[in-house]
Every structure is written in structure tokens, then in C-alpha cells.
Amino acid sequence: MNNEQFGHSTASAQYFLQLAGYLGIPVISWNADNSGLERRASQSTLQLQLAPSIEHQSAAMLSILERYKWHQFSVVTSQIAGHDDFVQAVRERVAEMQDHFKFTILNAIVVTRTSDLMELVNSEARVMLLYATQTEAITILRAAEDLKLTGENYVWVVSQSVIEKKDAHPQFPIGMLGVHFDTSSAALMSEISNAIKIYGYGVEAYVSDPANRGKKLNTQSLSCEDEGRGRWDNGELYLRNVSIEGDLNKPNIEFTADGDLKSAELKIMNLRPSANNKNLVWEEIGVWKSWETQKLDIRDIAWPGNSHAPPQGVPEKFHLKITFLEEAPYINLSPADPVSGKCLMDRGVLCRVAADHEMADIDVGQAHRNGSFYQCCSGFCIDLLEKFAEELGFTYELVRVEDGKWGTLENGKWNGLIADLVNRKTDMVLTSLMINTEREAVVDFSEPFMETGIAIVVAKRTGIISPTAFLEPFDTASWMLVGIVAIQAATFMIFLFEWLSPSGYDMKLYLQNTNVTPYRFSLFRTYWLVWAVLFQAAVHVDSPRGFTSRFMTNVWALFAVVFLAIYTANLAAFMITREEFHEFTGLNDSRLVHPYSHKPSFKFGTIPYSHTDSTINKYFKEMHYYMKQYVNTNRIS
């Protein structure tokens, strides 16, 4: 047992627990002044902790942050025993809560000298979790006040080890929050009673186990004065598995596999002036119960700087480093004014396109006039950014991603925009970026305002007239009907009627023997007549003499007029220049999926290290291997 009245020797308690662990002696402990004693593997399975664990304290502190929507914070500790366990407990709790509340740990500082707090000065953290002894906390908070890290914009949430008694040190800033549990003598006596119950229930469980039938505990010779020895195999398991009825409206006393309490209750404390305003006191403002769904219940709070509202948890005007990759029309790049080094009204804002190492020893004013260092960014995303900066009150620096890649997994590591976010080189990415499962697993995306999908872009050939354009006014069947049926039928009908006519072809021999001009008409002359009439040709033709054959010739001439009128009317629409391009059914098109199955093979590629590139590499291995030879070349069709 170790409470505030019987000493604060963390080192002695740590030594005792380690010694008991090495000797294999189970310990039922209640460490009030520092429940975060460092644990070793040899002792963790042999120790039962009746006081709320450091995991409970960290969970309660994060519940306060969740209640007031403080998403980002820093962890400040001294070299108090168990400070590494506290930081680890906070990180594990943050990871557990990521599904319903996003936390960001901006800094984790171990204060060995006051200058270590300078890291907080340069940070955007406005909420700090402090884990230290009261003496160390006084030194830390005195230095924090000198560095302007206290006041109405800063919140300090402290652990049990800082709150030792109701009266607080005057160095502590008003509005501090903390977690606390009863460490009085009455609480100590109550826990002694619980410890005896745990031991008794453990002995009962050991004796009742059929596996231990016939075994004796041999505890008759044990006393506080005499020497004796007693051992029961796996006794710590029976102690850890006990379940003791708790107080009214509280769960049973049970332990986890690490020997910590499953359920704990912590008081939420607030530092405020006393009734006479002469000193500062810790006042209970709520309770945190680990077993309830709504774990936290808080009343009115005295906020830092005697403010009536909780701090925002972020700087009033914060600065963001924003990484981008240009893609029209979302982000366009254009040169700045070479004289002033500024962007015109219609050209957006200045953005840096040079890498960080290229900016070393470079005069910023001169760099603004150099297009290889700075250019102007404009577009839809830039308009959104300026609107957000105006309404949310932040400043920003636009920097182009160094490797010029969108962000894919390459040999198990991210590159491009996603790598800058994962490695915390930037605060935000602004561009047109595709959301996929791999990216969403490591970064957070805003609500998408446009869905674009994947498109196939092909080259167009303009100014081309098809060599068969003069035939396109009619389809193949129509041309076959005219060329094979209509012309042949008209020719043979005219020739047949002329043959049978009394003054026609059958009178040829008779007419040749008289003084009448010879009659020149034959099947080939009929073909010549039909073609001449069809194409309205101004050539000499021999007309038939028979009435019927002449009538058929006029019918054919009428057909030719209608045919030519329709043909010439439609011909203009097919003789204009057109755009020709390759048409694809999608990514599953055989010319893409199996490029070597077509001769000549179609040349294609995509933007390297993009979502499309990784998708093709994942689902179309052959296609991705083939198109590597055409990426970043001018040989793409």
C-alpha cells in the first residue's frame, strides 16, 4: 500500500514490486501517488493493481478532449517513473478511438529542462496532457507561463500524480483540468478490506479447483514475525480471476490479464479560485466511469483566463503547409509577373514549385521573380482554398510535391502526395485526387465534390475525306440494286422493245438495202444510252425508233433524274472533312487487355504512379507490363 499519507517514495515502491516479481511473489497493490509505476514482464503477471491504472487515467483525459471536440493535442511528461507507459497508453487509446473520433498527437515531450518546452511554442497545440509529480508540474507550468503557453487559449489536463490535495499551488493556471481518485486514509482502509477479500476468494477458488484436490497450501507456519514458507502453483491466476461484488450501482471488482482493474471511477477536477478568492482549489466537476456508455458527466467549468467558453483547441489564426500537383482546371500553373514577382488578379496566388533543398540560401524576393522557384496557381481548388482561408482564418504556403507523383505504393512505401501526408511533411494536399481503398486507409479525404472516373483518351485525325465518300450517300444494297438490277433491266427492256418494233432493229437489213440512211442500233449502243442518261452526259447517242422503246427510255431518264437529285443532295454531307479516332469499349477491350493479339499492336500508356496506373497494375498485369515501354514517351496512340 502506498498513499499520500504514508509516503511518496516511488523508487522504494518500484524496487519492492520488482523484487517481488523477480522472486515470483504475487502482490496486491494500491499505489495512490503514482499508479503509473513502470512495469516489467517479470512482475506484470504477478501484480494486481487496485488503484485506477494509467490506462484509465489516459482514457478519462481523452474523454474530456472528445467532449469539447479538441482533436489535436500534445503530451508533456517529466522523467517520472512510468512516463513512457503513459505516452504509450495515450497512443493506444487514440488508436482505439480513431473510428469515431480523430485525434492527432502533435508533440510528445519529456521535459528534462525548461528549454524543452520551446517545441510547444513552435507547435499549433493548444491542449496539453501533463503527467508529472506535483513538484515537477510546478516547474513545468512556471516555464510554460514564461513562454506564453498558458492563458485563455491554452488548456492543461493533468493526471492524478499532479493533484495531491485540494489546495493547489499558486503557480498553476486557473482553468486546469485533471483526473483524480480518493487517496485518503478511509480509501486506504477500504482497499485493504478489498485486498483481503481478493486473497480469500483466490484461496477459495484454488481449493475448489478439482485439479488441486489433495494439495495443501501449507500456510500454518507463516506469520509476520516467524520464518516460514508456503507456495501454491499458479496462485496468481486464481487471484486475477476473482470477482467480488462491488458497491451499490457499481460493477464487480475484476481484473484484466495485466492485473489492472476492469472498471474504474475517476473524478474530473477543475482548478478555480476558492470562495474567498485567496487561493486556488481543485473542485470536483464531474465523474468518469469506465463501465458506462456515456462515460463522462461534467458540470460547469472555470475556463482558462476566466473565460465563459471553452478554448477552440487550435490557434486563432494557424498556418498550413499545403502540397499540390497541378491538373487543369482544378489547379493551373502560370508564370508570375517577372518585374514585381506577384500574380495578377486573374492568375491566382503564388506557389512554390522548387524543392526544399533548392531553396537553401536563396533570396525569397528574387526567387518570386524566377519561374523555376515560384509560379502562380489558379483554378477551382485555389478558389476554394482562398474561401476557406478567409472564413476559417488561416494562412498557408502552397508547395508542389517534390517527386511530381500522385501517390501509389512502390515497394511497400508510399510516394508522391500520399507520402508527404503519411510522413507528416505537409498538413494538407490540394488537387484532383482519386479516392481508393489503399489511400483511404492511410489518409483522410474530404467529401468529394465531383466524380470523374477513368477515361480513355485517343488521338484524333482531322481534315481527312474518306476515299469511298462518293459512295456513302447510298448503302451497298442500293448500289447493287442500281448497278446490277436497274441498269441491266432498263438496257434489256429498251433493246428488246426496239428489236420487236417494226421500225426498229429487225428492219436493219431491209433499211440497209434501200436509199434510207442506215439504222445504227445495237445492245452495246443501248448500254451507252442508259449510262449517258443516268449520268446526264452530253455525248452523242443513238436513240431508239420504236414507240415502246422510246417510252422505256423516258422512264429510265425520269429514274435517273430522281436518283441523281437524291445522290447529289446527300453527297455534300459525306464529302466534308471528318475526325477519325479509335473507339474502345472500355478497359476490357481486347486491344488493350491482349495487345499482342492485334497486328500492329496498339500503343497506349497512362500517367505513372497514379490511381489508374496502380489499378491497371493490380488487375491487368499483361496490359501494365506492355504499356511500360510507352509511358513518358511520344509514341502513344
TrEMBL record:
It is a multi-pass membrane protein. The record marks K621 as: Interaction with the cone snail toxin Con-ikot-ikot. The chain crosses the membrane at residues 479-500, 521-539, 551-576. It is found in: Cell membrane; Postsynaptic cell membrane. L-glutamate binds at R439, T612. Residues 365-423 form the Ionotropic glutamate receptor L-glutamate and glycine-binding domain. GO terms for molecular function: ligand-gated monoatomic ion channel activity; signaling receptor activity. Keywords: Cell membrane, Glycoprotein, Ion channel, Ion transport, Ligand-gated ion channel, Membrane, Postsynaptic cell membrane, Receptor, Synapse, Transmembrane, Transmembrane helix, Transport. InterPro entries: ANF_lig-bd_rcpt, Glu/Gly-bd, Iono_Glu_rcpt_met, Ionotropic_Glu_rcpt, Iontro_rcpt_C, Peripla_BP_I. Residues 361-531 form the Ionotropic glutamate receptor C-terminal domain. One of its GO terms (cellular component) is postsynaptic membrane. SMART domains: Lig_chan-Glu_bd (SM00918), PBPe (SM00079). Belongs to the glutamate-gated ion channel (TC 1.A.10.1) family. This is Glutamate receptor ionotropic, NMDA 2B. It comes from Glossina fuscipes.
